[in-house]
Amino acid sequence: MQSATSTPASGGPxxxxxxxxxxxxxxxxxxxxxxxxxxxxxxxxxxxxxxTVAWFRIIGASxxxxxxxxxxxxxxxRPQLISVAVxxxxxxxxxxxxxxxxxRIDLGKGVTIExxxxxxxxxxxxxxxxNGVALAFAIVGVVVLGGVEVADxxxxxxxxxxxxxxxxGYIVLGSRVAQVDRGVAGLGxxxxxGAIVTTPIGAPWSGPVWLSPTxxxxxxxxxxxxxxxxxxxxxxxxxxxPIRRFSLLLALLPVTASVIGWIALDQxxxxxxxxxxxxxxxxxxxxxxxEIERVERVVRTDPA
Length: 304
What we know:
Layout: H1 13-20, H2 23-44, H3 50-68, H4 78-102, H5 107-114, H6 116-125, H7 129-145, H8 154-179, H9 185-197, H10 199-202, H11 207-210, H12 213-238, H13 243-249, H14 252-265, H15 271-301
Helix pairs in contact: 2-12, 2-14, 3-4, 3-9, 3-12, 4-8, 4-9, 5-8, 5-14, 6-7, 6-8, 6-13, 7-15
């Protein structure tokens, strides 16, 4: 049964805006929130282990999301709860692997290599020539952006490739959870389960965080930015567009991560990186043109 608070008509102005805004605008907003959180996390790695920062990120996000959701306490079917739990555990493990990777690889390069997962999802769902061309541009752009030397950084490569596979799972599973249409309740409940399951990974090194209110607040703030805001926006977007389009628009994330990494962490992109960014943007633009033409065809054939 659908929660009364999950529909745009009965939600607040923010929910209504998220349900009607252009997907591109939502992606940029989500990406900025996610990678501001990631930049804060990188700065914390000198004091707290990456996997522990990721664990607190999941905890902070679940607390924030459940606090603003009223549809998570009841009304779930068993299949829905299983989907939510698997989604939450997948997302939690993705966050942990990603932080272990960006402790070893620049933020922009790490996100770019991680984008192999979304590209694979988009490739499976791509059916038109133009979408294939758009995907090709995005792939080349990601390959160019991901031109980081990894021969002496196999640990970083391992963790980012694992995060990439989990990211593909996040897209597919997250789309199913979003269709339940309970606002961000499914995301909050899933992350709560994910935080519990990953406790053995994050808790053993958490002592310094519990002893420092400043560190605790910073770790939880990472979760608010990266998961509660970033992934919360994703849930609204996933309800409105196909998985293929969602996966390809995720190409905007490596671009945003490169910019945030440059501004916040002084990880300046090279000329080759800028070429890769341009190729990614061309791929998104080509795909968007295909989407516009599809909508125009629908309008012409169904003027009502």
